[in-house]
Amino acid sequence: MSILIKGGRVIDPENKIDAKLDILVEGNKISKVAKNIQAQEATIIDADNKIVAPGIIDMHVHLRQPGREDKETVATATLAAAKGGVTTVLAMPNTQPAMDCPEGVRLLQEIIKKDAKVNVLICGTITKGRLGEELSDIAALKKSGVYAISDDGCSVDSDELMLEALKKAKQAGLLTICHSEDKKLSGKGVINLGFNSTRLGLRGISNESEYKRVRRDIELAKKAASAVHIAHVSCRESVEIIAQAKKTGIKVTCETAPHYFTLTEDALLGYDTNMKMNPPLRSKKDLMAIKQGLKDGTIDVIASDHAPHTENEKDIEFERAEFGVVGLETELSAGINELLAKGVLDWPGLVEKYCLNPAKILGLEAGRLAKGTPADIIIVSDQEPWVVDKQNLVSKSKNSAFLGYSLKGAVDYTICKGQVVYKR
Ligand code: DOR
Ligand code: ZN
To answer: 70 — phi, psi (to 5°)?
Structure first.
C-alpha cells in the first residue's frame, strides 16, 4: 500500500527542509519527498495548510504493563500515543516486576508484538528491582534488545555503583537515563519547597535535591567517559549545570516535560493532585530557565513523562496521592501553545525537541522525513483549538495536569510504519 501526502508544510530540520512538499510512502518507508509527486495507486491525504512532521519519539513513557494494567496497558498507551502524534515510545522500566532481566524484556516484547499500535522500545533497569543495591546484567539486557537503562522513579544513591553502571552501559553501547533526585534531600516532600509549600502546609522538595544529583550524575559520566541523559529537568540550577557540562565536552543530554514549561507551583494552590508529579512544578523563575534552556539548546528533548494513575490513587488526600500525570495526548499541543505561539521555538525547533534529538540520542533512523527513513509521520492542524477533558482522553487513566485547558494544535493523522494508526 502507498500513501501520498500532498501539499503540506514539510518540516525536517536534519535535512533543512521547511517547505510545501509532497511525501510518498511506500510500504513502511518514505520513498520520495518532492514537489508535485504523481502516484496513481496511492491513497491521497490532502495536507494543504497543515504541518507534516516526523512522528514524535517520546523517550519517557510509563506503560504500566506488566503489573499495573489497571492504570494503563501497552494497548491503551499506544492508542493514546497515536492520538497525540507519538509514533515511538521508550517504555520506562518501573513496571511490576521491573524490567531488570532478559526474561522480563522478552515477555514485554511479546505483549508489544500483539498489542502495540506504535513503536515501543524498552528501557531496562540499572539495578535489580530498581533497589539501587546490585547492578542488573546490563550486557544481557542489551542483548535482549533494550535501548537504554534507567532506575526511573529512583536514583542510584551509591556513587560506586552508579559509576560501575555507566561503565558497563558504555561497554554495552547503551544510554543511561538518570532520574536525578537525592532522596535524602527530597525526603517526604510532595510539592516544590517554597512559599506555597509553607502556605499549603505541605512538605517541600528543594531544587537542591535535583541539581545536586544532576551534578553528581554528570561527574560520574565524565569519569566513566560515558554518555548520560538527565530525565525530566525541572529547575534552573540543573539547566545551568548541564549547560556548563556541555561546554566542557561531557556527553550529557537532557529532557524536560511540557508541565515544566507550562505550569508553576501556583497550580497547586487548590490542592489539585493532578498537579502532583516528581520532580514537582517549580517557580516562575525555574519555568523561565526551562524555556531558555529549550531555546538555547541546553535542553535537547521534550518527553511527556506519561505517568498514568487510577482515580483511586489520585482522588485522595494530597500527601497520599501518587506522583505523576498523563501526557501523551497533550504534549504536542502544550509545545504549540507555550513554545511555538510564544516565540520560544519555531516549527523546526519543535521537531528537533520532539523528534530529531530523541532519535539521535537513541540511535534511531526515525525523526527525519528523508527518502528511505521509516514512514513515521504526523499531519497536524497547528491552529485547531480543543479543550482537554476526561471524555476526549483515550489513555486508561485521566490524570492530566491540563484538564479543562484550551489548547491549540490537533493531530489529524498519525502514520506509523506506513500505516495510518490514527485519524481525527
Ligand atoms: O511523577 C512521577 N511519576 N515521577 C516519576 O519519576 C515516576 C512516575 C511514575 O512512575 O508514576
Ligand atoms: Zn523519573
So the answer is: -75, -25
pLDDT recorded at residue 242: 99
Side chain identity at residue 63, one-letter code: L
**What pLDDT, in 10s, does the model give residues 217-237?**
999 999 999 999 999 999 999
309 found inside a domain:
yes
Q: Residues 46, 145: one domain?
A: no
305 is catalytic: yes
pLDDT tens-digit profile of 242-263? 999 999 999 999 999 999 999 9
Q: How far is the CA of 25 from the centre of ligand 1 (A)?
A: 37
* Same domain for 294 and 410: no
Among the atoms of ligand 1, which is closest to the Cα of residue 179? 6
Query: Which structural domain range is residue 42 located in?
Result: 2-51+375-423
Overall domain count for the chain: 2
Q: Answer whether residue 1 shows pLDDT above 90.
A: no
With respect to residue 369, please indicate whether it lies within any of the assigned structural domains.
no
Helical H segments across 278-382, by residue range: 284-296, 311-314, 331-335, 347-351, 357-362
How far is ligand 2, taken at its centre, from the CA of residue 181, in Å? 9
Nearest protein CA to atom 2 of ligand 1, as residue = 324
3-state secondary structure of 201: coil
